[in-house]
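Reposting from the mailing list since nobody answered there.

I have sequence plus structure tokens for a pair of proteins and want to know whether others read the tokens the same way I do. The first protein:
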Amino acid sequence: MTSEKPCCAAAAARMIKKLALPDGSQVAIANLDSILKEVAHLKLVDDNAIKKELLKRVKIYNYVAPSADNEYSEALLKEYRRQYCELQREGK
């Protein structure tokens, strides 16, 4: 896992991204881009394995209530597919 440390408050703020949950609410996730990239490098193909790995890594940097695990993992998978499945289709 990467251990990127921001040099200043502005850099730290850029490391936080919004994630839309299935109910339409949004949450701030620290290191989301790095987490998605790390999981993409694992080349997992099973959706459940991808969700589990994404959630595990998100919990390193962010608090996720146990009751919200399913909502977060679904939203993370959706964002993962949006970013990395598009790149695969484009051949990048």
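The second protein, same order (residues first, tokens after):
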Amino acid sequence: MSFSAVVVAAGEGLRAGPGAPKAWRLLGGRPILRWSVEALRAAGADEIAVVVAAERVDGLGQALAGLTGWTAVAGGAHRAASVQAGLAALTGGPGQPVLVHDAARPFVSKLHVDRLLTALADADGAIPALPVPDTLKRGQGLVEATVSRDGLWRAQTPQAFRLGTLRDAYTTWPTGEEPTDDAGVVERAGGRVALVAGDPMLMKLTYPEDFAMAELLAGTRRIARTGFGIDAHRFGPGDAVWLAGVRIPHSHGLIGHSDADAGLHALTDALLGAVAEGDIGQHFPPSDPQWKGASSDRFLAHAVDLALARGAQVLNVDLTLICERPKIGPHRDAMRARVAEIMGLPLERVSVKATTTEGMGFTGREEGLMAQAVVTVEAPL
């Protein structure tokens, strides 16, 4: 189901101890707010309003580099004002589902999102919640009473609503009063809010010890995924071939709808495979005239953008070129450098190898050449 999201990251997080505001601190080597944006995009968010303090709007591009579908929004003096600023930035209609999420809960997943969107079909709002497990006491220094925990829940985020419902509910909220969450705003406006199963992993990072725990958990929330790609092209008229983004003078050219760069095509398919996004023909069909003669670096860059939008980071690429000629060795370093540039990777993560088939098969007869690629990414569970 299509949905929009507001990620609230405008607070200072003073209880987290000295240092940068908590949403900007690193977790597993990435800013905490990036975890939430990546996860919501991977879960299918069409657009995300990321609400940050006004002085940090300019820095958001670096924190979310490579991700798409988000808009930077300057927050207000308190959380409710920040949420309303985020809602105002969304372009969906009144019936569009919207998830409001605290950036300080970095371990949100598609499972959480799907539960909320399902529950929203029969309610004005839906929130993840955990039953209170501890005995509750009321008092100041001394216990005055034991409070029943029956029917008590710990509310978490993200919280789901229809965009028009939440916007309208905020217009009825009393001026000068600060709501503790968005569900409370909808409740006071007469809306029905459903409870769905919460998750201890939706923990909110508040105190210094929370960050130490989250760092231990961060490694369990991502897995390595591998994709394989293969491509082949016939030789034809021409005086050069394109391989791995490098033009190589040769006695023949390669026949293809685009520039026939088998190396970049194989890499593109491998990366698309690693993030389960189909194949190069689905994204750039050879029947479409706009891709005739196109430079294949556009295809690979598109696959990189898709991977980043789904929260994946490329760890390593390994490209093997199979041909008798042209000789690859003299161009290997240039190929590695060009692939690293297109994919935004350090050179040491890019491998380019070459082999022959010892005169066997179509490559041995020099009728064409082949490329095989393996790409490994780290992606959210």
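Reply #1 (J.P.):
I read it the same way you do. The domain at 222-380 is CATH 3.30.1330.50 (60s Ribosomal Protein L30; Chain: A;).
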